[in-house]
């Protein structure tokens, strides 16, 4: 069993813990929260072996193989680096870090700790529906671009409208729409089409100074990909990838719960795979096989590809912010 500790006690951590239980590959060894009562309550609810209010102490306990980070974005870098230095592997919620300098430092640390693995939890590119979509894209004789959408109203925006500054909507915590929901369609574009040659970002700023929604354009030379995302409204538009006469459509570029192939005559073929019991189950199973058998050739290849995607997505996110002059305090050392 893989001994895992968690940082964060919100809904995404709960969903992760439930996926871990379904996988039967992990043991919840530790829970961290800044507040003892919160940590203990989460540990009791999920039958964790221990709870901590000191992150370094949890890592130094010797009881962990991997730690899962679901903390505010701006805290990821220091927490990732601390884990790597303790030879503890990391699953970190997207975005893994805030900028290219932080990513470069993480890669340098990984090189010094070759037994550590770093996984960015971009769940959509680990799902069976993504693999079906990837195969369908590969079968297109001509690719003419895509339009990807992921827009969901955040309950935290109610707080913004009430004059508050929740972490996910502040630049101080490397927040905003691009750094949250935007990561998923950007991941999809990078995983399917590679790293774009040029990018532009047109954000809509909100009262906190962060982006509440936005439109990104990824230029690939022969075609462009437009990406719409946001946390201040809902969209029910399907995403599309354009061939010559055929089109691939998805209900959501972030969740990928339905995937269709539409032929030239309008005939629809459903490529959707069976529904998942938990949307995080495929990724935790993927991470488990790498952690349990890191030298297996397939696992080596998959891990290198995921890490390359993480680096490329980080570069795209940063380049998009540069075009919009959207800077974070974490960028001060750029």
Tag the structure with descriptive keywords.
334 residues; alpha/beta; 8-stranded mixed sheet; 6-stranded parallel sheet; globular
Tell me about this structure.
The protein has 334 residues and is of the alpha/beta class. Helix content is 36%, strand content 22%. The chain is built from ten helices and 14 strands. It has helices at 11-23, 36-46, 55-60, 76-85, 100-112, 128-139, 156-161, 183-193, 281-292, 297-323, and strands spanning 2-7, 26-32, 51-52, 66-69, 89-93, 118-121, 146-151, 198-205, 211-219, 224-230, 239-242, 247-250, 259-262, 268-270. It has an eight-stranded mixed beta sheet with strand order 8-9-10-7-11-12-13-14, with helices on one face. The chain has a six-stranded parallel beta sheet with strand order 3-2-1-4-5-6, sandwiched between helices. α4 (76-85) packs parallel to α5 and α8 packs across α10 (297-323). It is globular, with a radius of gyration of 20 Å. This is Gfo/Idh/MocA family oxidoreductase. InterPro entries: Gfo/Idh/MocA-like_OxRdtase_N (IPR000683), GFO_IDH_MocA-like_dom (IPR055170), NAD(P)-bd_dom_sf (IPR036291). Residues 2-116 form the Gfo/Idh/MocA-like oxidoreductase N-terminal domain. Residues 155-247 form the GFO/IDH/MocA-like oxidoreductase domain. It comes from Candidatus Levilactobacillus faecigallinarum.
């Amino acid at each position: 069993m893989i001994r895992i500790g968690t940082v964060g006690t919100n809904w995404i951590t709960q969903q992760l813990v439930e996926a871990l239980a379904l996988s039967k590959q992990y043991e919840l060894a530790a829970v961290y929260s800044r507040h003892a009562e919160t940590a203990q309550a989460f540990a009791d609810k999920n039958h964790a072996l221990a709870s901590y209010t000191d992150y370094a102490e949890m890592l130094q306990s010797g009881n962990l193989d991997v730690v899962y980070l679901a903390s505010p974005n701006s805290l990821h870098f220091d927490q990732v680096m601390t884990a790597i230095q303790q030879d503890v592997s990391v699953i970190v919620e997207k975005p893994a870090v805030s900028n290219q300098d932080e990513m470069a430092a993480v890669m340098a640390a990984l090189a010094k700790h070759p037994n550590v693995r770093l996984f960015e939890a971009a769940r959509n590119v680990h799902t069976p529906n993504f693999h079906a979509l990837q195969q369908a894209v590969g079968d297109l004789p001509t690719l003419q671009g895509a339009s990807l959408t992921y827009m969901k109203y955040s309950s935290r925006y109610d707080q913004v409208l009430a004059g508050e500054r929740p972490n996910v909507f502040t630049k101080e915590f490397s927040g905003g729409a691009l750094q949250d929901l935007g990561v998923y369609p950007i991941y999809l574009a990078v995983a399917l089409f590679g790293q774009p040659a040029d990018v532009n970002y047109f954000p809509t700023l909100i009262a906190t100074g962060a982006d509440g929604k936005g439109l990104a354009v990824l230029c690939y030379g022969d075609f462009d990909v437009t990406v719409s995302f946001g946390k201040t409204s809902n969209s029910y538009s399907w995403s599309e990838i354009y061939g010559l006469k055929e089109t691939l459509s998805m209900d959501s570029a972030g969740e990928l719960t339905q995937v269709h192939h539409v032929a030239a005559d309008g005939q629809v073929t459903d490529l959707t795979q069976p529904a998942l019991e938990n949307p995080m189950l495929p990724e935790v199973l993927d991470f488990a096989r790498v952690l349990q058998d890191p030298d297996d050739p397939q696992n080596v290849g998959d891990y290198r590809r995921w890490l390359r995607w993480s680096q490329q997505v980080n570069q795209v996110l940063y380049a998009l912010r540069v075009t919009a002059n959207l800077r974070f305090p974490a960028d001060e050392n750029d």
